Every structure is written in C-alpha cells, then in structure tokens.
Here is the input.
Amino acid sequence: MSDPAGETPLGPDGLPRCPWALSAPDYLAYHDGEWGRPVHGDDALFERLSLEAFQSGLSWITILRRRPGFRAAFADFRIADVAAFTDADRERLLTDPGIIRNRAKIDATLANARVLAGWKPGELDTLIWSHAPEEPGPAPRTLGDVPAVTKESTALARTLKKQGLRFVGPTTAYALMQACGLVNDHLQTCAARG
Here is the structure.
C-alpha cells in the first residue's frame, strides 16, 4: 500500500514511511525511533561507528538483530573498557555467537577503542559533527535520490583514518552520518522526516 501520491508505502499505522523500513518489524522500530535522529557522546558514536564497520558487506538487519549481543560482548561500547580488552577478550570475541565473528572487524574495533581512549572527552563527538553538511540538502523523493557517499563523508573518513581509525571508508562514514542524524535521508513524504 502506498500513500495517496503513490510515492511512499504506508506503515501499519497508515502513515508513509521509507520503503526499507517496512521490510521487517525491527527495521520499522529502528527507522521510527533512531535512524536520522541526532546522536551525541563519544561512547554512543563509537558504538555506531563500530556497528557500521561490522555491517560492511552485510545487511543492516543482521547487525540490528545482533546489537544486544554486540553490546554485551563489547562492554556497551564504553571506549575505556574496550580499550582495556586483552588477548583473552579478543579470543572470546572470536568465538562469540552473539556477534559477527570477523577477525579484521573485531581487531579494528579494539584498535579504534585504543586510539579513542587517548582522546579528550567530547573529541570524537566534535570531530564527527564537524563534518555535518553546512546546509541540509533537498529531501530525497525516492531511494534513488539518497547518495551512498558525499564529499562530507569522504572528508570524515579521511580525517578518521588520519587519526588512526580503521574500517572507516566514505560509505561507512555516510551510513554513520545517516544513522546519527548528521543528514536527514528520510524520504520527503516519510512521516519520520519531521
């Protein structure tokens, strides 16, 4: 079912949503309650950055459904705690069925936490938000209008890599920007856009 203009499908409550949000109940809850809403705080942004890296090459629903397992495995993504993980913790993560057991992504998350543990409080938040576009772009009318990479996400990825962070390419950086509200890619007719 679509809205009267035929551009955006309607959710179970009759309100228009971005099409991807209606493919699973987990997506609908994430779309309506989190995606595109501003996220601040170093630990919260470290979690999003880490989960976006784990998502690389996979569907987001896979990560979303395992998010409780990730939070349990990675000490709720508290940077200081993850930075203190030992080799034994790394081995535990490599056998944890509640997460994606990808060695390179686990190693990147641990390495990123160690880098970020040396930053001042608020520094990650400030760095990420400094890459938000100065002016919001036009509201996308279709999913085809939503970019995968922008000049801002390319700059953010470059800056994070320069600082020693891993698994932060321009596409991952843009997904982070979408998820954390630096950009609003809800479709023009989506009820969650406002």
